[in-house]
Design brief:
By secondary structure, the protein is of the alpha/beta class. It has one domain: Zn peptidases (Aminopeptidase, 3-Layer(aba) Sandwich), CATH 3.40.630. The protein has helices at 9-31, 47-67, 75-91, 140-157, 185-195, 245-258, 280-285, 316-334, and strands at 96-103, 106-115, 123-130, 165-171, 199-207, 236-240, 263-267, 290-294. Helix 4 links the parallel strand 3 (123-130) and strand 4 (165-171). Helix 2 crosses helix 4, helix 4 (140-157) packs across helix 8 (316-334) and helix 6 packs across helix 8 (316-334). The protein is globular, with a radius of gyration of 21 Å. The mean pLDDT is 93.
């Protein structure tokens, strides 16, 4: 005869309370960031920021309207965008280097410029953005905005003196079918850095940073992040894996100190959806701390990876505030002792 034991509800409640408490503690560890996100109304740009905005508009229009879709299958346009980036950096006074390699029987290249430190040091800060687009898209936001920001950071940082080397790199081949493969430009770059024994102490990937909305419900997330972040798409996000948690926190702390713009951050396992979706992933593979700075792309932007990813959808006014703030972040990272 089988005797049915009574269910111990107290023990069950205790066990689930412990499990839920651990999950909440883990999420708070991943999402709690230093400082406070700006929550006031958007303030008008000052004169310096207005100039940044105007140049961002020019860069995004040049890449998305004048050049358009740019990838290995539109190789002349891909090379035209590489030339545009190289010319822009050269005009600012940078010596530009190319890391060339062959993919699908065509030559492609990463474009690199460098700010040397005031004293000899082997520590390096890399700021990067991919300049290719997915098939069928002019790529205004993905990733014309990232490239535009890279070029404006090059302008804002030029002539400053840091204690660490700052490298500004435009990467090729981030989009499929090269995404998360060794034919990503950033993967080639990171592997070469590891072979050379370079000490990259921080890598910032500028990925799709130009779309913002004040409408409630305009922001989405993969579960369970929606429980911890706002549902209004008016912020910039700092995203890293657990190994880059210190860099996420350093960067967002600096941004919040200098910039009156909403910001959110997370340091989460790299296998979670969206956490590793850009060139920072390539640097993780080589053991370097790296983060993505993004408007969260498809989690708020309806035109992601479509033919409608046009400059008309981009808010260069808000992006200018973000870029100006990021120049302070890079400066802080590059002067860290």
């Amino acid at each position: 005869m089988n005797i049915i034991k009574p269910i111990n509800y107290k023990w069950m409640i205790f066990r689930w309370t412990i499990i839920l408490s651990l999950l909440v503690a883990i999420m708070l560890f991943m999402t709690q960031m230093p400082g406070s996100s700006y929550s006031g109304p958007f303030q008008s740009l000052d004169e310096a920021e207005q100039k940044v905005r105007d140049r961002l508009v020019d860069h995004v229009n040049a890449l998305a309207l004048e050049i358009g879709e740019r990838n290995v299958w539109r190789h002349p346009r891909l090379m035209a965008s590489a030339g545009y980036i190289e010319d822009s950096l050269t005009e600012l006074g940078y010596a530009v280097n190319r890391q060339e390699f062959e993919v699908h029987n065509v030559l492609v290249a990463n474009i690199e410029a460098e700010l040397s430190p005031i004293n000899q040091t082997d520590k390096i800060i890399v700021v990067g953005a991919h300049y290719d687009t997915v098939l069928g898209s002019p790529g205004a936001n993905d990733n014309g905005t990232g490239v535009a920001a890279l070029l404006e950071l090059a302008r804002l940082l030029h002539g400053q003196h840091f204690t660490r080397t700052v490298r500004l790199v435009a990467f090729v081949n981030e989009e499929p079918p090269f995404f998360l493969t060794k034919d990503m430009g950033s993967r080639r770059y990171a592997m070469r850095s590891r072979r050379r024994g370079e000490k990259i102490t921080a890598m910032l990937s500028l990925e799709t940073i130009g779309y913002y909305s004040d409408q409630k419900g305009s922001q989405n997330y993969p579960f369970p992040f929606g429980l911890f972040y706002p549902d209004t798409a008016n912020f910039i996000a700092f995203v890293g894996n657990m190994g880059s948690r210190r860099l996420v926190r350093q960067s967002i702390k600096s941004f919040r100190k200098h910039t009156k713009f909403p910001s959110e951050g997370t340091a989460a396992p790299g296998w979670l959806a969206g956490i590793g979706w850009s060139d920072h992933w390539s640097f993780w593979k080589e053991g370097y701390p790296a983060i993505m700075i993004t408007d969260t792309a498809l989690f708020r932007y309806d035109h992601y990876h479509t033919a409608m990813d046009m400059p008309s959808a981009i808010d260069c006014t808000r992006m200018a505030r973000v870029v100006y703030g990021l120049s302070q972040v890079v400066a802080d990272l590059a002067t860290e002792r």
